[in-house]
Amino acid sequence: MSKTVLFFPGQASQYVGMAKDVYDNSADVRQMYELASDEIGEDIARLSFEGPADELKRTRFTQPAILLHSLAVLKTLGDDRPEFDFAAGHSLGEYGALAVAGALSFEDAIKAVVKRASLMEQACQQNPGTMAATMGLSVDQVQQVCEDASSAGVVVPANFNSKAQIVVSGSVPGVEKAVELAKAAGAKRATMLEVGGAFHSPLMESARSGLEEFLSRVTISEPSRPVVANVTAGAVTDPEEIRSLLVRQVTAPVKWAQTMAWLTENQVSRLVEIGPGKVLASLAKREMRPENSLNLDTLENIRSLTAVKA
């Protein structure tokens, strides 16, 4: 029997103007943005809607802005939310997946991501680093490239985004060496990324310890549907395992290609991406070849879905 997954995007899906139409349409959504702004100490609605883009892409703001967009769509959908069998999110998107499944309240998901984003930005400042994308190398080849390049500095596989695209992360010298070695190994492409730091690498260790302390005080419930975790690329329902995996996720690679493979093996052929952009749906079209794919980004998208249901 065909199953459905809800996807929640991660960092780099943001754009100036995101969720403004959804925000303008709902007092409940505006209240969520006010909560986040109070937690951050900045007007996240203004940054999301007006930018500037360079400020919006700062980790401290990007992560809450993307989560708020996803939660705003869910809040607006209400009882018209699509039925689903699994939920999954890319990196920070995992918090949206946990929220839609009821493992985290919307309020706790917002507070946790605000804290996570702040801790990760601090870690970037304490341990400067970068990332690079490789295309056309196998997992084993990229792991070997990272091992060989580690003589220049810390560098590890960070995002297994698809069978073709793997992102590496670490110190600037380590990542630069990895790019050089990846090209020598026959990569179709190996390019440095414009990012604020070495996400999902050991250079994020200080953020991990800070998040662990914060999450120890957050209520995590058993989700109504399994959430596919980034760290394991497998379904998780145990609240304490969820808590542990959210902490590990900060320094562990995002196993997104493996997540898509797991979902395909478990008869998922319909997907709905909730939040800004179409990054995850685009990856899934190539990797999962779903029967049906839907993006819920704008108020028009939401109204189109609810009109069909009516």
What does this entry look like structurally?
With 310 residues, the protein is an alpha/beta fold. It folds into two domains: 3-125 and 202-309, Malonyl-Coenzyme A Acyl Carrier Protein, domain 2 (3-Layer(aba) Sandwich), CATH 3.40.366; 130-192, Alpha-Beta Plaits, CATH 3.30.70.250. It is 50% helix and 15% strand. It has 14 helices and ten strands. The chain has helices spanning 20-25, 27-40, 44-50, 53-56, 59-77, 93-100, 106-126, 139-149, 172-184, 205-215, 239-249, 256-265, 279-287, 299-309; strands spanning 3-8, 86-89, 130-135, 155-160, 165-170, 189-192, 227-228, 235-236, 268-274, 292-296. Strands 2-1-9-10 form a four-stranded parallel sheet, sandwiched between helices. The chain has a four-stranded antiparallel sheet with strand order 4-5-3-6. A two-stranded antiparallel sheet has the order 7-8. α13 (279-287) links the parallel β9 (268-274) and β10. α7 (106-126) packs antiparallel against α10. The relative contact order is 0.17. The mean pLDDT is 96.
